[in-house]
Structures are given as C-alpha cells and as structure tokens.
Design a protein that fits this description.
heterodimer, A: mainly beta, 46% strand, B: mainly beta, four-stranded antiparallel β-sheet, 50% strand
C-alpha cells in the first residue's frame, strides 16, 4: 500500500517568506508527527497529532512554526518569516495507534528546505 | 556510542562481516526502543523494535540487544551487504518525554566490497 508522502520534495525560499509543507499519512493512521533534521543531526520532534485530541506542540521552536491537520488526515506545517537557520529536512511520520500504544512510526521521504 | 553534532561515529565493515552498532540511551524509565535506517536522501526506515521487558529480539538478519542495567542498546546486522550502508538511528520512548520518541544522533555504517 502507499506510504507516507510529502510535498514538495525540495523547497528553496528567500529569507522572510512563508512556506507550507504538506504530509499525507498512511491511510487509517490516526497519529501524525513532524520532525526536523538538520545536516548530520538526529531527528528533532516538532509536533504530534493524535485523532481529535489537541496536538502536542511542545517541540515547535518558535511561534513562526505552526501545523494543522484537516479531517484527521493531511497535515500542513507552516513556517512564517523563514530564517536561514530553518534550513533542514522536515520529516513527517504516521502510526496506527499513537505514542501511548508504542506503535512504529513510518516516515515519509521528507521535504528539504533551503532558506537563502 | 552516539555523539552529537556533525561528527557522527562511523563504522566501516567488510561485506559479509557482521556489524554491531551501539547506542547509549539516556532515560532509565524508557520502555520502548526502536532502530531506524536512513539512506541518503530518504526518510528513516523502520528496522526493528524492542520493549523494555525483553533483552533480545531477532528479525531477518538483524538482532537488537537491550541492556537496561547500563542503558545500552545495540543493533547487530549479520552478513552485512552493500545495501546496508546508511545512517542508523536508535530512539527511545518514555512517559517522562511525554511518550515521544527521542532520537540519537546516528551512526554511519559503510560497507566495503
């Protein structure tokens, strides 16, 4: 079946512009996660959606970052007034039962963001 | 073990040899652990997981060992192949982290033919 998909695969933007990154989770997965991966680094948690519950936003680095998940499926991560330090790979993952169930997270290919 | 920053530890092995990748995790309350493989330009791919009530779990060509006494996790890959070349991440989950996965910085595995 289809895995997690993300778009665009690459995004180059100018400092100060806003960007939107999209994630389509695996069909039927109730949990969705966003991570950021800087060059040569591990994954940094950003935000977690589980069903209809309020999202866990504890990893968002600033108020320039926001995310929403419409209809319990597709999610959009928005970065406003981008800065050069926002350049990274943004990864989305989904799982069938969420964190409490300890279920495996399946990752998309990521969006490579470069802020000039 | 893991390290932070741009200087990821690197393990170089000959094709056909066994590989052992190590991870020192930080939280004694962590109850779930997972290994991911990330090839260049791709997202992380699940390899194997283990819960804290186990000390060993085997998959196809891979084995994960958990030593809770010293908070150490290892991934063993049998008969390493060129396609195994990638960055390998361990991750831990604990209620103290809000049940979120916390990832290590990664280890680079290079397989020489």
């Amino acid at each position: 079946g289809a895995g997690v998909s993300q778009s665009p695969s690459n995004k180059v933007t100018e400092k100060g512009k806003d960007v939107e990154l999209r994630c389509d989770p695996i069909s039927g997965h109730t949990a969705l996660y966003w991570y950021r991966q800087s060059l040569g680094q591990g994954l940094e948690f950003l935000i977690y959606f589980q069903g209809n519950s309020a999202p866990d936003k504890s990893g968002l680095p600033s108020d320039r970052f926001s995310a929403e998940r419409t209809g319990g499926s597709v999610s959009t991560l928005t970065i406003q007034r981008t800065q050069q330090e926002d350049s990274a790979v943004y990864l989305c993952a989904s799982s069938s039962r969420g964190l409490a169930g300890g279920e495996t997270q399946y990752f998309g290919p990521g969006t490579r963001l470069l802020v000039l | 073990g893991e390290s932070v920053g741009l200087h990821l530890p690197t393990l170089s092995v000959q094709e056909g040899d066994n590989s052992i990748i190590n991870c020192a995790y930080s939280n004694s309350a962590s109850d779930y652990f997972i290994w991911y493989k990330q090839e260049s330009g791709k997202g992380p791919q699940f390899i194997i997981d283990i819960r804290s009530n186990m000390d060993k779990r085997q998959g196809q060509r891979v084995t994960v060992l958990l030593n809770k006494t010293v908070k150490h996790l290892s991934l063993q890959i049998a008969a390493t192949q060129p396609g195994d070349s990638a960055v390998y991440f361990c991750a831990e989950k604990s209620w103290e982290y809000g049940n979120k996965l916390v990832f290590g910085a990664g280890t680079i595995l290079r397989v020489k033919s």
